[in-house]
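User: Can you predict the 3D structure for this chain?
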Amino acid sequence: MRPLEAIKFFVKYICAPRRTGAVCPSSRFLSRKMAQGVGIGATEAHSENKVVVELGAGTGAVTQALVDSGYADILRSIEFDSSLFDILSDRFPNVKVMRANAEHLREVLGLESERVCAVVSSLPLVSLPKDCVENIVSEIEAVLPKGGHYVQYTYKIIGKNKNVRFKSLRKVSSNIVLLNIPPARVDVYEKI
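Assistant: Here is the predicted structure, written as structure tokens:
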């Protein structure tokens, strides 16, 4: 991460803490744990013509881990903020980066919504308005096939996020990552 990118991220947090959700980008330890949650190997995903979707890509910390895991050309990174979108587009020319709202995921992905195998989210679901979270969760559940993974991190290390209700996802793993500011928990869900 470049210092200027970290500063921009921090300024975004100061200006809109509920929407940004973090004071600094995810650590490489958290980012790697997020990428591991995809659950389908890059070779297998490529051979089956699948798509991995990243929500709330920010400055690209998790994007980098997904690229390092071999998903670059099947990755669809979605970022709502225009200045963060610009950073992502410059930093990852081989990734399809889209400036869009996760509440309209199916519309944003178009026909690719039928090829999604995993959704990796850095969205601050704990701090977003309830109706917004319900819309995002509904879109995620709609695009994921049976057995597809949804990966989300939270700074709420213990307990449930009462703001998030799933109809067709069950938690399959949960890991605490202490080497992050602040420490975080990575939850992996599977579509049933």
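The mean pLDDT is 89. The first strand starts at residue 51 and ends at 55.
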